[in-house]
Design goal:
Elements lengths: L2 H18 L8 E5 L8 H11 L6 E5 L1 H10 L4 H10 L7 E2 L7 E2 L3 H8 L12 E7 L4 E5 L4 H8 L9 E3 L2 E5 L8 H7 L3 E5 L13 H15 L10 E3 L14 H14 L1 H11 L7 H9 L1
Parallel strand pairs: 1-2, 1-9, 2-5, 9-10
Antiparallel strand pairs: 3-4, 5-6, 5-8, 7-8
């Protein structure tokens, strides 16, 4: 981080300290939510346990379905409403089959789906700062959206290559963020998080044969990712991996099981989360902004 960015970080922390009082002396917590189609409903279970345990969430970064869940939560949508919507969701709610050389469907219906969860339309209206991560298909790099309209950024982050058409937005050709940020832990660090809780929804490699082209593509990506170095892990303090490997990409009917898996994993690792928060808290009498600056140098 450059000296200018360090100065900005210290200034922002100072303002937060003034605004939040004693609470500013705790580490800022960032939640990085990965993709996984229907498996993403497990994020709701994770959020439920974090709420029950009083774990604060200061920043959220999301990839693909993680961006959808993150946007809804950051906008103030209740977890109960998310569960209801998850159970009722079908592919036609966010995807529409089409004829194109660039994909089999468009996800333009995702904008209406988002509006079922919240009336919020811009990042600036959210209750919790949010980053939505997509991938620039031309440059092969992550693109982090933190301002402006939510819907186009969300569509881009959810544009699973091969299935959905790429989304052209702000002069870029964009596809699913999982290609460059399977779990957007680096993005939530950029936002200012001191502690990052990551949620990875590993589908695993099912032994039965793929049912269709979508599953062929998905399992191919899983094999590539399993063999590749994953730098996003270096930015995660506690990694949650709910047991969702048995759930297929479109099994939204398994919403109760998915939420239960998220809850179980969050409870299992809650001691680790609390230990990291305690470890990262500044010593008595020591201001958080100084603590954080020392961590970065």
């Amino acid at each position: 981080m450059s000296s200018v960015l360090r100065w900005v970080s210290r200034a922002v922390n100072g303002l937060r300290s003034f605004a939040y009082g004693p609470d500013a002396d705790r580490p800022r917590v960032g939640l990085a939510l990965g993709g996984g189609f229907a498996r993403g409903i497990a994020h709701v279970g994770v959020l439920r346990v974090l709420n029950e345990e009083g774990i604060p969430i200061d920043y959220i970064a999301g990839t693909s379905v993680g961006a959808l869940i993150g946007a809804a939560y950051a906008a103030g949508t209740s977890l109960e409403e998310m569960e209801i919507q998850g159970l009722a969701t079908r592919f036609k709610d966010f995807g529409r089959w089409t004829l194109s050389r660039l994909g089999m469907a468009t996800n333009d219906r995702l904008e209406d789906f988002l509006h079922r969860l919240t009336s919020v339309k811009h990042f600036e209206e959210l209750e919790i700062p949010l980053c939505i991560v997509a991938t620039d298909l031309v440059l092969g790099e992550s693109v982090e959206f933190t301002e402006g309209e939510l819907a186009p950024a969300l569509r881009a982050s959810c544009a699973y290559p091969g299935l959905f058409l790429p989304v052209e937005y702000q002069g870029r050709v964009l596809v699913d963020g999982f290609l460059t940020a399977l779990v957007p832990s680096e993005a939530v660090r950029h936002m200012g998080a001191d502690v990052v809780i990551g949620v990875h929804l590993e589908p695993g490699l099912l032994r039965n044969k793929p049912r269709n082209t979508i599953e062929v593509i998905g399992r191919s990506f899983s094999i590539i990712q399993a063999a590749a170095h994953m730098p996003w892990r270096d930015y995660v303090d506690v990694l949650l991996q709910p047991d969702v490997h048995h759930v297929l990409w479109d099994e939204f009917a398994k919403t109760p099981q998915l939420i239960a898996a998220g809850e179980a994993e969050a409870r299992r690792l809650m001691p680790d989360i609390k230990a990291v928060l305690a470890q990262r808290s500044p010593a008595p009498g020591r201001h958080r902004s100084t603590y954080r600056y020392e961590q970065e140098t």
